[in-house]
Design goal:
The protein is of the alpha+beta class. The chain has two domains: 173 residues, Ribosomal Protein S5, domain 2 (2-Layer Sandwich), CATH 3.30.230; 142 residues, GHMP kinase, C-terminal domain (Alpha-Beta Plaits), CATH 3.30.70.890. It contains eight helices and 16 strands. Strands 2, 5, 10, 11, 12, 13, 14 and 15 form an eight-stranded antiparallel sheet that branches. A six-stranded mixed sheet has the order 8-7-9-6-1-16. A two-stranded antiparallel sheet has the order 3-4. Bound molecules: (3R)-3-hydroxy-3-methyl-5-(phosphonooxy)pentanoic acid (PMV). (3R)-3-hydroxy-3-methyl-5-(phosphonooxy)pentanoic acid binds next to α2 and α4.
Protein backbone atom coordinates (compact mmCIF):
# COMPACT_ATOMS: atom_id res chain seq x y z
CA UNK A 1 0.00 0.00 0.00
CA UNK A 2 2.94 2.25 -0.67
CA UNK A 3 4.30 3.86 -3.84
CA UNK A 4 6.54 6.71 -4.96
CA UNK A 5 6.15 8.67 -8.18
CA UNK A 6 8.03 11.40 -9.98
CA UNK A 7 6.43 13.99 -12.27
CA UNK A 8 7.66 17.02 -14.14
CA UNK A 9 5.83 20.32 -14.51
CA UNK A 10 4.68 21.37 -17.94
CA UNK A 11 4.47 24.73 -19.62
CA UNK A 12 1.46 25.51 -21.77
CA UNK A 13 2.13 26.92 -25.22
CA UNK A 14 -1.60 27.24 -25.81
CA UNK A 15 -3.00 28.30 -22.45
CA UNK A 16 -5.74 26.86 -20.28
CA UNK A 17 -7.78 29.56 -18.53
CA UNK A 18 -11.37 29.02 -17.38
CA UNK A 19 -13.53 26.09 -16.30
CA UNK A 20 -16.72 24.61 -17.71
CA UNK A 21 -17.39 22.83 -14.42
CA UNK A 22 -15.86 23.84 -11.14
CA UNK A 23 -16.63 20.75 -9.09
CA UNK A 24 -15.17 18.27 -11.58
CA UNK A 25 -12.52 20.80 -12.62
CA UNK A 26 -13.39 20.62 -16.31
CA UNK A 27 -11.56 23.10 -18.54
CA UNK A 28 -13.51 25.64 -20.61
CA UNK A 29 -11.24 24.89 -23.59
CA UNK A 30 -8.32 22.66 -24.55
CA UNK A 31 -4.64 23.49 -24.16
CA UNK A 32 -1.26 22.34 -25.40
CA UNK A 33 1.95 21.99 -23.43
CA UNK A 34 5.50 20.69 -23.19
CA UNK A 35 6.46 18.52 -20.23
CA UNK A 36 9.77 19.70 -18.80
CA UNK A 37 12.68 17.63 -17.54
CA UNK A 38 15.02 19.49 -15.22
CA UNK A 39 12.34 20.24 -12.62
CA UNK A 40 10.55 17.54 -10.69
CA UNK A 41 8.19 16.62 -7.90
CA UNK A 42 8.65 13.36 -6.01
CA UNK A 43 5.69 12.09 -4.00
CA UNK A 44 5.47 9.11 -1.72
CA UNK A 45 2.07 7.79 -0.62
CA UNK A 46 1.47 5.13 1.98
CA UNK A 47 -2.04 4.10 3.01
CA UNK A 48 -2.02 3.00 6.64
CA UNK A 49 -4.94 1.32 8.40
CA UNK A 50 -3.71 2.61 11.78
CA UNK A 51 -3.76 6.31 10.88
CA UNK A 52 -6.72 8.39 12.04
CA UNK A 53 -6.09 11.30 9.66
CA UNK A 54 -4.02 12.01 6.57
CA UNK A 55 -0.48 13.22 7.26
CA UNK A 56 0.78 15.45 4.47
CA UNK A 57 4.19 17.09 4.24
CA UNK A 58 5.32 19.46 1.50
CA UNK A 59 9.05 20.10 1.20
CA UNK A 60 9.53 18.80 4.74
CA UNK A 61 6.82 21.02 6.32
CA UNK A 62 3.67 19.34 7.67
CA UNK A 63 0.49 20.71 6.09
CA UNK A 64 -1.86 20.74 9.05
CA UNK A 65 -4.56 23.16 7.92
CA UNK A 66 -5.39 25.35 4.96
CA UNK A 67 -6.35 25.07 1.32
CA UNK A 68 -3.29 23.13 0.14
CA UNK A 69 -3.99 20.39 2.67
CA UNK A 70 -7.71 20.36 1.79
CA UNK A 71 -6.88 19.86 -1.89
CA UNK A 72 -4.65 16.86 -1.12
CA UNK A 73 -7.16 15.28 1.29
CA UNK A 74 -10.04 15.75 -1.19
CA UNK A 75 -7.87 14.16 -3.87
CA UNK A 76 -7.03 11.18 -1.65
CA UNK A 77 -10.79 10.78 -1.02
CA UNK A 78 -11.30 10.25 -4.76
CA UNK A 79 -8.67 7.50 -4.75
CA UNK A 80 -10.07 5.89 -1.58
CA UNK A 81 -13.54 5.94 -3.08
CA UNK A 82 -12.32 4.29 -6.30
CA UNK A 83 -10.35 1.67 -4.37
CA UNK A 84 -13.19 0.96 -1.94
CA UNK A 85 -11.35 1.53 1.35
CA UNK A 86 -11.06 4.32 3.90
CA UNK A 87 -7.43 4.08 5.02
CA UNK A 88 -5.73 7.40 5.71
CA UNK A 89 -2.36 8.10 4.14
CA UNK A 90 1.11 9.45 4.75
CA UNK A 91 1.94 11.74 1.83
CA UNK A 92 5.39 13.19 1.48
CA UNK A 93 6.05 15.46 -1.46
CA UNK A 94 9.15 17.38 -2.48
CA UNK A 95 9.74 19.85 -5.28
CA UNK A 96 13.22 20.63 -6.51
CA UNK A 97 12.02 24.10 -7.62
CA UNK A 98 10.01 26.95 -5.94
CA UNK A 99 6.46 25.92 -5.00
CA UNK A 100 3.42 27.98 -6.07
CA UNK A 101 5.36 30.72 -7.79
CA UNK A 102 3.86 30.40 -11.26
CA UNK A 103 6.06 27.41 -12.01
CA UNK A 104 3.25 24.90 -12.30
CA UNK A 105 4.07 23.03 -9.10
CA UNK A 106 0.40 22.03 -8.95
CA UNK A 107 0.83 20.29 -12.32
CA UNK A 108 3.74 18.09 -11.28
CA UNK A 109 2.34 17.83 -7.73
CA UNK A 110 -1.03 16.37 -8.65
CA UNK A 111 0.40 14.26 -11.49
CA UNK A 112 2.87 12.65 -9.05
CA UNK A 113 0.14 12.29 -6.41
CA UNK A 114 -2.26 10.66 -8.90
CA UNK A 115 0.32 8.08 -9.99
CA UNK A 116 1.63 7.34 -6.49
CA UNK A 117 -1.79 7.23 -4.78
CA UNK A 118 -3.41 5.08 -7.50
CA UNK A 119 -0.51 2.66 -7.41
CA UNK A 120 -0.45 2.50 -3.59
CA UNK A 121 -4.20 1.84 -3.68
CA UNK A 122 -3.71 -1.03 -6.15
CA UNK A 123 -5.58 0.71 -9.00
CA UNK A 124 -4.13 -0.50 -12.28
CA UNK A 125 -5.37 2.39 -14.38
CA UNK A 126 -4.46 3.50 -17.91
CA UNK A 127 -2.50 6.71 -18.34
CA UNK A 128 -5.62 8.34 -19.76
CA UNK A 129 -7.63 7.46 -16.68
CA UNK A 130 -4.83 8.70 -14.44
CA UNK A 131 -4.90 11.95 -16.45
CA UNK A 132 -8.64 12.29 -15.69
CA UNK A 133 -7.84 11.70 -12.01
CA UNK A 134 -4.95 14.20 -11.96
CA UNK A 135 -7.25 16.81 -13.54
CA UNK A 136 -9.43 16.73 -10.42
CA UNK A 137 -6.43 18.10 -8.49
CA UNK A 138 -5.36 20.68 -11.05
CA UNK A 139 -6.25 21.21 -14.71
CA UNK A 140 -2.65 21.41 -15.87
CA UNK A 141 -1.73 18.23 -13.91
CA UNK A 142 -3.69 16.15 -16.42
CA UNK A 143 -1.01 17.09 -19.00
CA UNK A 144 2.00 16.06 -16.85
CA UNK A 145 0.91 12.41 -17.05
CA UNK A 146 2.44 12.43 -20.52
CA UNK A 147 5.92 13.27 -21.71
CA UNK A 148 6.98 15.54 -24.55
CA UNK A 149 4.32 17.53 -26.40
CA UNK A 150 0.85 17.11 -24.98
CA UNK A 151 -2.68 18.20 -25.81
CA UNK A 152 -5.45 18.54 -23.24
CA UNK A 153 -8.88 17.60 -24.55
CA UNK A 154 -11.64 19.67 -22.91
CA UNK A 155 -14.17 16.88 -23.51
CA UNK A 156 -17.93 17.28 -23.77
CA UNK A 157 -19.28 14.73 -21.28
CA UNK A 158 -20.72 16.07 -18.04
CA UNK A 159 -18.91 13.42 -15.96
CA UNK A 160 -15.53 14.61 -17.28
CA UNK A 161 -14.43 11.15 -18.43
CA UNK A 162 -13.33 12.54 -21.82
CA UNK A 163 -11.48 15.55 -20.36
CA UNK A 164 -7.92 14.22 -20.34
CA UNK A 165 -4.59 14.80 -22.00
CA UNK A 166 -3.09 12.88 -24.92
CA UNK A 167 0.51 12.67 -26.11
CA UNK A 168 1.06 14.32 -29.49
CA UNK A 169 4.84 13.91 -29.84
CA UNK A 170 7.48 12.36 -27.59
CA UNK A 171 10.21 14.35 -25.89
CA UNK A 172 12.69 13.02 -28.47
CA UNK A 173 10.69 14.38 -31.39
CA UNK A 174 12.03 17.91 -30.99
CA UNK A 175 14.73 19.13 -28.63
CA UNK A 176 13.98 22.63 -27.40
CA UNK A 177 15.31 24.52 -24.42
CA UNK A 178 13.13 26.34 -21.95
CA UNK A 179 14.88 28.92 -19.78
CA UNK A 180 12.78 30.02 -16.84
CA UNK A 181 13.68 33.51 -15.70
CA UNK A 182 12.60 33.91 -12.07
CA UNK A 183 11.68 37.51 -11.35
CA UNK A 184 10.34 37.32 -7.79
CA UNK A 185 10.46 35.20 -4.67
CA UNK A 186 7.57 33.82 -2.68
CA UNK A 187 4.05 32.87 -3.54
CA UNK A 188 1.93 34.65 -6.12
CA UNK A 189 -0.97 36.84 -4.99
CA UNK A 190 -3.77 35.31 -7.04
CA UNK A 191 -3.72 31.54 -7.49
CA UNK A 192 -4.70 30.23 -10.91
CA UNK A 193 -8.07 28.79 -9.82
CA UNK A 194 -9.20 32.05 -8.25
CA UNK A 195 -7.69 34.03 -11.11
CA UNK A 196 -9.44 32.12 -13.85
CA UNK A 197 -12.83 32.01 -12.13
CA UNK A 198 -12.71 35.75 -11.47
CA UNK A 199 -11.72 36.34 -15.12
CA UNK A 200 -14.52 34.17 -16.39
CA UNK A 201 -17.08 35.92 -14.19
CA UNK A 202 -16.04 39.50 -14.82
CA UNK A 203 -13.96 39.89 -17.98
CA UNK A 204 -15.87 40.82 -21.15
CA UNK A 205 -12.84 39.54 -23.08
CA UNK A 206 -13.04 35.99 -21.77
CA UNK A 207 -15.50 34.44 -24.21
CA UNK A 208 -13.81 35.83 -27.32
CA UNK A 209 -10.47 34.52 -26.02
CA UNK A 210 -11.95 31.06 -25.40
CA UNK A 211 -13.08 30.86 -29.01
CA UNK A 212 -9.53 31.35 -30.27
CA UNK A 213 -8.19 28.29 -28.42
CA UNK A 214 -9.17 25.39 -30.75
CA UNK A 215 -7.61 27.16 -33.76
CA UNK A 216 -4.41 27.84 -31.82
CA UNK A 217 -4.18 24.18 -30.78
CA UNK A 218 -4.66 22.99 -34.35
CA UNK A 219 -1.95 25.33 -35.66
CA UNK A 220 0.44 24.51 -32.82
CA UNK A 221 0.08 20.79 -33.53
CA UNK A 222 1.15 21.37 -37.14
CA UNK A 223 4.11 23.48 -36.05
CA UNK A 224 5.22 20.71 -33.67
CA UNK A 225 4.86 18.04 -36.38
CA UNK A 226 6.97 20.18 -38.76
CA UNK A 227 9.36 21.39 -36.04
CA UNK A 228 8.46 24.92 -37.10
CA UNK A 229 9.99 27.02 -34.32
CA UNK A 230 8.95 30.44 -35.63
CA UNK A 231 5.36 29.33 -36.16
CA UNK A 232 5.11 27.77 -32.70
CA UNK A 233 6.61 30.89 -31.15
CA UNK A 234 4.05 33.22 -32.67
CA UNK A 235 1.16 31.01 -31.51
CA UNK A 236 2.62 30.68 -27.99
CA UNK A 237 3.17 34.43 -27.57
CA UNK A 238 -0.29 35.33 -28.80
CA UNK A 239 -1.98 32.66 -26.66
CA UNK A 240 -0.11 33.89 -23.59
CA UNK A 241 -0.75 37.58 -24.22
CA UNK A 242 -4.44 36.98 -24.93
CA UNK A 243 -4.83 34.91 -21.78
CA UNK A 244 -3.24 37.67 -19.74
CA UNK A 245 -5.33 40.28 -21.57
CA UNK A 246 -8.52 38.52 -20.44
CA UNK A 247 -7.27 38.54 -16.84
CA UNK A 248 -6.22 42.20 -17.07
CA UNK A 249 -9.72 42.93 -18.42
CA UNK A 250 -11.44 41.37 -15.37
CA UNK A 251 -13.04 43.60 -12.73
CA UNK A 252 -10.89 44.34 -10.79
CA UNK A 253 -8.19 43.41 -13.27
CA UNK A 254 -5.58 40.78 -12.43
CA UNK A 255 -2.02 41.63 -13.41
CA UNK A 256 0.49 38.85 -12.80
CA UNK A 257 3.46 40.76 -14.21
CA UNK A 258 6.09 42.89 -12.53
CA UNK A 259 8.54 45.33 -14.11
CA UNK A 260 11.05 42.56 -14.89
CA UNK A 261 8.35 40.51 -16.64
CA UNK A 262 7.66 43.37 -19.02
CA UNK A 263 11.38 44.09 -19.51
CA UNK A 264 11.90 40.43 -20.43
CA UNK A 265 9.10 40.50 -23.01
CA UNK A 266 10.74 43.48 -24.73
CA UNK A 267 14.22 41.96 -24.47
CA UNK A 268 13.13 38.64 -26.01
CA UNK A 269 11.34 40.38 -28.86
CA UNK A 270 14.35 42.60 -29.54
CA UNK A 271 16.67 39.58 -29.53
CA UNK A 272 14.40 37.88 -32.04
CA UNK A 273 14.45 40.93 -34.30
CA UNK A 274 18.27 40.74 -34.06
CA UNK A 275 18.28 37.12 -35.25
CA UNK A 276 18.09 34.97 -32.11
CA UNK A 277 15.32 32.39 -32.52
CA UNK A 278 13.35 32.65 -29.28
CA UNK A 279 9.89 33.24 -27.87
CA UNK A 280 8.30 33.68 -24.46
CA UNK A 281 5.34 32.47 -22.48
CA UNK A 282 4.11 33.45 -19.00
CA UNK A 283 1.75 31.61 -16.64
CA UNK A 284 -0.19 32.89 -13.63
CA UNK A 285 2.85 34.55 -12.08
CA UNK A 286 5.63 37.03 -12.91
CA UNK A 287 8.25 34.58 -14.24
CA UNK A 288 9.04 34.37 -17.93
CA UNK A 289 9.68 31.12 -19.76
CA UNK A 290 11.80 31.64 -22.85
CA UNK A 291 12.14 28.93 -25.49
CA UNK A 292 14.97 28.49 -27.98
CA UNK A 293 16.83 25.81 -29.93
CA UNK A 294 19.62 24.03 -28.01
CA UNK A 295 22.45 25.71 -29.92
CA UNK A 296 21.24 29.17 -28.88
CA UNK A 297 20.63 28.43 -25.21
CA UNK A 298 23.91 29.95 -23.99
CA UNK A 299 23.27 33.23 -25.83
CA UNK A 300 19.70 33.38 -24.63
CA UNK A 301 20.73 32.70 -21.06
CA UNK A 302 23.23 35.55 -20.93
CA UNK A 303 20.73 37.89 -22.50
CA UNK A 304 18.04 37.02 -19.91
CA UNK A 305 20.53 37.31 -17.05
CA UNK A 306 21.32 40.88 -18.11
CA UNK A 307 17.72 42.06 -17.53
CA UNK A 308 17.20 44.00 -14.28
CA UNK A 309 15.15 42.06 -11.75
CA UNK A 310 15.99 38.56 -13.02
CA UNK A 311 16.99 36.64 -9.89
CA UNK A 312 17.77 33.23 -11.27
CA UNK A 313 17.45 31.13 -14.41
CA UNK A 314 16.38 27.51 -14.46
CA UNK A 315 17.07 25.49 -17.56
CA UNK A 316 14.72 22.76 -18.76
CA UNK A 317 14.08 20.62 -21.84
CA UNK A 318 11.29 18.31 -22.98
CA UNK A 319 10.95 15.41 -20.55
CA UNK A 320 8.96 12.28 -19.79
CA UNK A 321 5.56 11.63 -18.25
CA UNK A 322 4.76 10.95 -14.59
CA UNK A 323 5.85 7.49 -13.46
CA UNK A 324 6.36 5.33 -10.44
CA UNK A 325 9.92 4.90 -9.24
CA UNK A 326 11.83 2.74 -9.60
CA UNK A 327 10.45 1.90 -12.99
CA UNK A 328 10.46 2.87 -16.67
CA UNK A 329 9.42 6.39 -17.71
CA UNK A 330 5.74 6.39 -18.55
CA UNK A 331 4.60 7.52 -21.95
O1 LIG B 1 -3.72 23.90 -13.50
P1 LIG B 1 -3.91 25.21 -12.87
O2 LIG B 1 -5.21 25.31 -12.18
O3 LIG B 1 -2.76 25.58 -12.01
O4 LIG B 1 -3.97 26.32 -14.03
C1 LIG B 1 -2.90 26.59 -14.91
C2 LIG B 1 -3.10 27.87 -15.63
C3 LIG B 1 -1.92 28.36 -16.47
O5 LIG B 1 -0.71 27.89 -15.96
C4 LIG B 1 -1.87 29.88 -16.43
C5 LIG B 1 -2.08 27.97 -17.93
C6 LIG B 1 -1.79 26.54 -18.27
O6 LIG B 1 -2.38 26.08 -19.26
O7 LIG B 1 -0.97 25.88 -17.61
Amino acid sequence: MEATAVAHPNIALVKYWGKRDQKLNLPAAGSLSVTLAGLSTTTQVQFDEHLTEDRVTLDGEPLETGRSRRRVVDFLDLVRHAAGFRYKAHVETKNDFPTAAGLASSASGFAALAVAAASAAGLDWSRRRLSVLARRGSGSAARSLFGGYVEMKPGTRSDGSDAHAIAIATEDHWDLRCLIALTARGKKETGSTRGMLHTQESSPLFESWRQTVPGDIEEARHCIDDRNFEGLGSIAERSCLRMHATAIGADPGILYWNAATVALIHRIRRARADGLNCFFTIDAGPHVKAFCLPEQATDLRSLLTSVDGVENIISARPGGGAHCTPGPTGQ
